[in-house]
Write a structure and sequence with these properties.
Elements: E1 6-11, H1 22-27, E2 32-36, H2 45-55, E3 60-65, H3 67-78, E4 83-89, H4 102-105, H5 120-133, H6 135-146, H7 152-156, E5 162-167, H8 175-184, E6 189-193, H9 200-203, H10 205-218
Parallel strand pairs: 1-2, 1-3, 3-4, 4-5, 5-6
Helix pairs in contact: 2-3
Length: 234
Amino acid sequence: MIRKPLPLVLLPAMGCDGQLWARQVLDLGDIAHPELGDLTVDDTLAAMAARVLAHAPPRFAVAGVSLGGYVALEMIRQAPERIDRLALFATRATMQLRPRTVGEQGLLATAPLADPALSANISGPVQAMAERVGAAVFERQQRALLARPDIAPAIDAVAVPTLVAVGDRDRICLPDDARALADRITDARFHMLHSCGHLAPMERPGEVTMLLRAWLQDGTGAPRGVSSGVRRPR
């Protein structure tokens, strides 16, 4: 039986635009209808989530990186009945032990460029994205991220097939941070991307495409021949 392509909303990280997901948009077009959610206008996660929901199809899959992951969780909180499945890259379960103000952020204020593991071959494109997005948008996104409320209720609301993935060299969302998030979501699949920093869709595009293809097709996020690093909560 031929499955109808699933609408797929892709949410970028702070300071990023659609180029972050360019490879996946191209490679997943046979099984999904990808579209980019707009996180550039609002300065709270709730408003960002509401804006994306207002322009999204009635039911869809959503994948987000970092800031995009937190917006995806807020979308689950606001409209769980509309989301078919969830993929979270470089997303933490809590803001504990993180700076709470722009002044305290230091190098993190330039994220994702602040990740020391950022691959040299994508540093130019990442810088270009940041320049296109601009300082005003970045400041709004930064305020939204720093002021985000407790996301425990949003995590508890997740009841769809979920993939949680993180780069083993990510220094903005540490691997243990992402693993803790996966452990809090029933039957979530956890995947470690090797030799990868904070922006997996650009740094490991082929592997991310394989993960998302499996996640879209059967909800596991564990493509054949790729170790999933699955850790199921007890």
